[in-house]
């Protein structure tokens, strides 16, 4: 009872406080479209805050040319074009990023005594995520164009890693119309979201294996094509000190687009194919040769695993070429072998290990599950690209360490336009 009463009291107090300046800025103000808007009267606006609904009585201006009204006070308070205060909007973002909109709405009421129907939570979070996504892209463009030069992180880490991957998110039918996919009817059900994560490593454990610095991950994601994603990853890498660290490493599962991205964004980086993906490909190579190796299948695979751990792709190639093959079987085996030949320089595992480098991309795969999957891939969920992109952006920023959160409001009472 006390809490409810205090919230109501706080709301009334806040309304009075905010109405103390009613935003009277003279008889005329610029309308924002090149004209002058004239003072009309004072009007009430009610918006929701963390203290409940608050009503502010503020000056209203009208532009005769635009036939449009505006209140300077709204822009100052960050409530122009919205009915949520910036504080409540931040709270709503956190709840909506954490779980489905209906649950978020219930949670806001239970924990914060804030009553917002799920649809409003959804609209507010998606608008906020879209604004942040645009801000991240804008900043990435400024950083990659060298208009903004981030200071190197302090203290400077010794090793910085970037790991990238993609994962499918189920879309509404409209979002996948005309796209080919793996469904039974040949139609796509999902769209790929790409995720990039940066983390640092300064330590090794007692067995000599690298240890990721706790809480050092920062994430970027997008549903846009690789070219856009490349800019986001490049900018985030620069921001995390890619141009200053001693050792920069890019980890991926072996997909060609990842190495294209790495070559364009970080030409000097060491590129490494995730060892566990390489082992899976090796097992599949061995299976395609099983009809030749027969009883020796197990020994053959074990020997090749030894080759792979040494990064000796020549030995794997030689062992495969011992078997004369023809026709479809030859094509199948060549395709499997191609994965290793194409990634030869990115599989020098023995050397990588001697430099104490990570050779697994588990961090980004875990990120795909935790940051994307646990919110966007729950059973029965179908998204629009814009909605999914907004929520993915909110989740990336919440998963990033606080000092690395990519988007910060310039002032906590001002919403980004
Ligand atoms: Zn006007």
Structural class category: alpha+beta
Helix content: 40-55%
Please give the number of β-strands.
Answer: 10
Q: Alpha-carbon distance between the termini?
A: 38 Å
Mean pLDDT across all amino acids: 91
Please trace the helix and strand order, writing H or E for each element.
HEEEEHHHHEEEEHEHEHHHHHHHH
Strand content: 15-25%
Low-confidence stretches: 409-417
The Rg value, from CA coordinates, equals: 27 Å
Enumerate the distinct ligands: zinc ion
How many helices? The count is: 15
Largest sheet composition = 6 strands, mixed
What is the approximate shape?
elongated
Task: Describe the structure in your own words.
Helix content is 46%, strand content 18%. The C terminus is likely disordered. The chain is α+β, with helices and mostly antiparallel strands and 417 residues long. A hairpin with a 2-residue loop joins strand 2 and strand 3. The strands form two sheets. Strands 5, 6, 7, 8, 9 and 10 form a six-stranded mixed β-sheet that branches. Strands 1-2-3-4 form a four-stranded antiparallel β-sheet. Among the domains are: 65 residues, no CATH class; 74 residues, no CATH class. Bound molecules: zinc ion (ZN). The site of zinc ion has 6 residues, from loops.
